[in-house]
Design brief:
Layout: E1 11-13, E2 19-21, E3 29-34, H1 41-52, H2 54-59, E4 62-68, H3 72-82, E5 88-90, H4 95-99, E6 103-108, E7 111-116, E8 119-123, E9 129-133, H5 141-151
């Protein structure tokens, strides 16, 4: 995933039923934040931060989607438990995660495995990748993404 390239298309199930597609957001800026697992501490803080800033993102003409490999039912429990106000998308096949560079080798407690790399992608209204954040640290991240989206 490199800045300036056309964002890969996707069509995935989302919380509340229905699907989310890249074309749903044509002509608008879009933030895609990829998180490892619903209802874990870091992922919860990140989703709450994006929810807290939802109105500011809307004022900046920017939609926000959270994406993980969790099933839709898990996404819905996560949304309801923490009163999240942003759509959550399920990519159980990892196709979108791989296309956006958010799936790869991770290491924990001395073992390596494949999983979701905490990544955020800002897609411009032109459908091109405007900015990519890799190895995201949660604290202050949503604010940084908002600043970038506002400056586009």
């Amino acid at each position: 995933m490199t800045e300036g390239r056309k964002a890969p298309a996707f069509r995935l199930p989302r919380d509340g039923g229905g699907v989310a597609t890249l074309s749903d957001y044509a002509g608008r800026k879009l933030v895609l934040f990829f998180y490892p697992r619903a209802d874990t501490p870091g992922c919860t803080r990140e989703a709450i931060d994006f929810t807290r800033l939802a109105d500011a993102f809307a004022q900046a003409g920017t939609a926000v989607l959270g994406i993980s490999a969790d099933p839709v039912k898990a996404q819905e429990r996560f949304r309801d438990k923490h009163s999240l106000g942003i759509p959550l998308v399920s990519d159980e096949t990892h196709e979108m995660l791989e296309a956006y560079g958010a799936w790869g080798e991770k290491s924990m407690y001395g073992r390596t495995f494949l999983g979701i790399l905490r990544t955020t992608v800002l897609v411009g209204a032109d459908g091109k990748v405007a900015k990519v954040w890799r190895n995201v640290r949660v604290d202050g991240h949503a604010d940084d993404v908002l600043a970038a989206a506002s400056s586009l």
